[in-house]
Design a protein that fits this description.
about 300 residues, ten-stranded mixed beta sheet, 10 strands, START_lipid-bd_dom, START-like_dom_sf, single chain
Length: about 300
């Protein structure tokens, strides 16, 4: 991160003028082009944005181990919060992806603020994808470059664990990598959103929810900004499709709910562009993983 002495100076009135010029960008590519077109002002503005956007909070770190029952209760609440938020009405379109049907939407909530939802189709069974995300969290960086590190800290109980992740930066380098300590809750759900247990029948969907919690031994790092996941989940819906040849294939309706506090003083227009791009980039890697897995005969 550049120090203040290394950052080009930009008078306050000019900073306000030029930050206003980039407020209407819709993607990271548009942001980069706009900054490039500003010449020396764009370079100065980009440097200042990096400095402010990637300042970690000075909050003191405190963490202690909770009881298994406390973790389970928190995990259950986080899953229900995610399920309820995912199914709210009145979503607003943020961006369409290059693949037909891919959309990123958003809505404003009283409890969490602005939340984002991605929806798209993945060519593999929902149960396969669910078990991969659930059981092989440490292997995510092997096929997904948006995840730099993924570590299982501790298994709490069936469908509940603590994990540590480092995510790649965004905004064409303006937003630096973040790390997270996450309490996960994973379960097949009924149509009403209740966790199912064998032999409860076929699930309506599979959910992997996560919420940030402090974990002993995992304080914020000096070289990273500690992000905070307020509410979020992957929700995987099984979908049977008949091909032109009459064959029935299993696909996944993939929904991703995201609401993260990335810390730093990041304007909403930058977050909108960054979150939409992250979600649309992520699904590309998920689809490639599914295609490679299918080629290997894993489903």
């Amino acid at each position: 991160m550049a120090s203040q002495s290394e950052t080009p100076e930009l008078p306050e009135h000019e900073f306000d003028t030029h930050i206003g010029e980039v407020e209407n960008v819709g993607t990271e590519e548009e942001l980069e082009k706009k900054l490039s077109s500003m010449g020396r002002f764009g370079f100065a503005l980009s440097s200042i944005m990096k400095m402010f956007f990637n300042r970690d909070s000075d909050e003191p770190f405190h963490a202690e181990w909770l009881t298994i029952d406390e973790y389970k209760q928190m995990a259950e609440e986080s899953m229900q919060n995610a399920w309820n938020t995912l199914n709210l009405p009145d979503w607003k379109l943020e961006k369409r992806g290059s693949q037909k049907g891919d959309i990123v939407e958003s809505t404003q909530t009283e409890q969490f603020g602005k939340v984002y939802r991605f929806t798209g189709i993945v060519d593999c069974p929902a149960k396969f994808l669910y078990e991969e995300f659930k059981n092989n969290i440490t292997k995510l960086p092997e096929w997904n470059p948006t995840i730099l590190k993924s570590e299982l800290i501790k298994e709490i109980g069936p469908g509940v664990d603590l994990s540590y992740q480092v995510t790649a930066g965004g905004g064409r380098g303006i937003i630096s990598p973040r790390d997270f300590t996450i309490l996960r809750r994973m379960a097949p759900l009924s149509r009403a959103g209740a966790a199912l247990r064998p032999p409860d029948g076929a699930p309506h969907c599979y959910v992997l929810a996560g919420v940030s919690v402090p974990v002993p031994g995992y304080p914020p790092r000096r070289d990273l900004v500690r992000g905070h996941n307020k509410v979020g989940c992957w929700c995987l819906y099984p979908k049977s499709v008949e091909t032109e040849g009459g064959k029935i294939v299993e696909r996944t309706v993939f929904q991703w709910l995201m609401c993260c506090d990335l810390k730093g003083k990041i304007p909403q227009f930058v977050l909108d562009a960054a979150f939409a791009t992250v979600m649309l980039d992520y699904i590309v890697h998920v689809r490639k993983f599914a295609a490679d897995s299918k080629a290997k005969g894993l489903f």
